[in-house]
Amino acid sequence: MTNPLDLPFDTDEMLTGLRPWIETESPTFDGAAVNRMMDVVQHELAILGARTERIPSPMGLGDSLRVEMPHPKAGEGGILLLGHMDTVHPIGTLAKLPYKREGEICYGPGLMDMKGGNYVYLDALRKLLAAGIETPLPVTVLFTPDEEIGTPATRRLIEEEAKRHKYILVPEPARPDGGAVIGRYAIARFNLQTRGRPSHAGWALSEGRSAIAEMAKAVGTIEGMTTEDCTFSLGVFHAGQWVNCVSSVCDAEVLSMAKTQEQLDAGVEKMMALNSDEGDVIMEIRRGVTRPVWEPDQPGTMAMLKLAQDIGGELGIEITGSSAGGGSDGNFTGFLGLPTLDSIGVRGKGLHTLQEHIYIDSLTERAKLAAGLFCRLTP
Q1: Which contacts qualify for 75-78: CB closer than 8 Å, 24 or more apart?
Q2: How deeply is 313 buried, as exposed, middle or buried, from its count of CB atoms within 10 A (0-12, 13-18, 19+)?
């Protein structure tokens, strides 16, 4: 049998194949845009003879795409390739961050997080099929539309699908040192609203009570609660329509991350204690979606890491393993105790920014890693 690490992966071919993926912008909150991205992927996989299924979102977001790759035992439990196709970049980002190659770097919205990794792992499956190499276990692919907002619509779908499989591969971008993730911190989201009293800012300023001013005070308090073990960050702030009106409503969103569930629970308690219905401005805090702690060093995951490290050794690359923040859908599968190897996708920098890019040499490197994992993960 052909050594899967010797398959003919071609960098230029991969960059050409990635272009339509990146130029199909797919921000989470634009369900139609995410569905256009799913259309592109579904078409490519159908050509390979895969069985594809679209699953509508119960929250009006984009669809999920579930795929059974060609295999004598297709549909049975085996390996789950788990990724998301939504990005944080709004429609029109391509004008500021076009898909382009500059030397050994390639830029584009969503290229690092995580269309690049998704593409590379599918290309490995494509090359294995073309070479007539049958993987020991059948491979199922699940691409979701809502990871960037905490997976509120598809968590249950992910968990129930993952329970059918022996191994879960999550090609989120690699760690800065090229390593994999074998555990993740807990993450909680909060929705905040202050409600004051409106007035004309020029005619009767003193009669108003500014919701914006109260929320601004809260920013320092909330971010001041950050410790090494539990962080707080206010990243969304919406208020006001007219500069000559005292704003009566202000909405904000806070993200908290903690290394352990106990630390997160303590952080949640601190946040919820900021609720207040006293005085002229009300502060209301509601807890949003939560990613549970994925405890590191689980035996099944560590065995997967050892296999990845062995493959890396053959490729001349070092693959470390560590816990990480940031959150991914691997939180859910790891929390369930399912063997999960995360952040095994492309290497790059600047995810979630207008400098998002990947290192081009990581395309073939990670495709070979993927091919090795698909062929050496056994029943």
Answers
A1: 75/51, 75/138, 75/140, 76/138, 77/138, 77/164, 77/165, 77/166, 78/135, 78/137, 78/138, 78/139, 78/140, 78/165, 78/166, 78/167, 78/379
A2: exposed
Nearest alpha-carbon partner for 237 in 224, 253, 222: 253
Tokens of 37: 């991205």
Alpha-carbon distance 241 to 17, whole Å? 44
Domains of the chain, CATH where assigned: 4-184+293-376 (3.40.630.10), 186-291 (3.30.70.360)
Element (H, E) at 217: helix 211-223
Mind listing the pLDDT tens digit of every residue in the chain (379 residues)? 689 999 999 999 999 999 999 999 999 999 999 999 999 999 999 999 999 999 999 898 999 999 999 999 999 999 999 999 999 999 999 999 999 999 999 999 999 999 999 999 999 999 999 999 999 999 999 999 999 999 999 999 999 999 999 999 999 999 999 999 999 999 999 999 999 887 877 777 777 788 999 999 999 999 999 999 999 999 999 998 888 888 899 999 999 999 998 999 999 999 999 999 888 899 999 999 999 999 999 999 999 999 999 999 999 999 999 999 889 999 999 999 999 999 999 999 999 999 999 999 999 999 999 999 999 999 9
Residue 358 Cα to chain centre, angstroms: 16
- 3-class secondary structure, 1: coil
H or E element at residue 211: helix 211-223
The answer to whether 191 touches 253, Cβ cutoff 8 Å, is yes
Length of the chain: 379
Please report the DSSP string for 259-288 in residue order.
SSHHHHHHHHHHHHTT-B--SSSEEEEEEE
